[in-house]
What does this fold into?
Amino acid sequence: MQLHGLIHQFPKEIKSLIFVFIIVLSVGFYGGLSFVNNTTSMQPAGIESNYLGNENDEEATVMKFKKSETEILTIVHNHILSLSVIFFLLSLILSTTSINKKFKYFLMIEPFFSIILTFGGIYLLWRGVSWFKYLVIFSGILMTFSFVSATIAIGYQILFSKKS
It folds into this structure.
């Protein structure tokens, strides 16, 4: 079965459904990024203090305490499961586009590695491996790049679809 370019043959109703799904999914994803920015300032020290606490930092304006084991396991568990489903659905839709096959394959597979690196890195950071905060930032950036690229590619293919 040939999936490459199949999105161009979808009925208008399916294209509309996919487009609305991508918009709502993006609102949720960017809302999550806003939350991350709010809690960590998207800085290594912010990531560290968000999970390990900052009660020894006399200059801290907001007091944060180290997450409990239950909290950290819940965060890691919930994010790995939910983001896996999100990127699986996004990858299924992306597979039907007619973008460059190698780039498409990268955008379909990479987020799953980033999910493990980001949330595994958060867990290992919490366990005391402090340099993992840099891996969390790198993999989070890569995951966001993949999400943005995939949603733009899908939206573009739907809005400017060529009839086959």
Q: What stands out?
A: The chain has five helices and no strands.
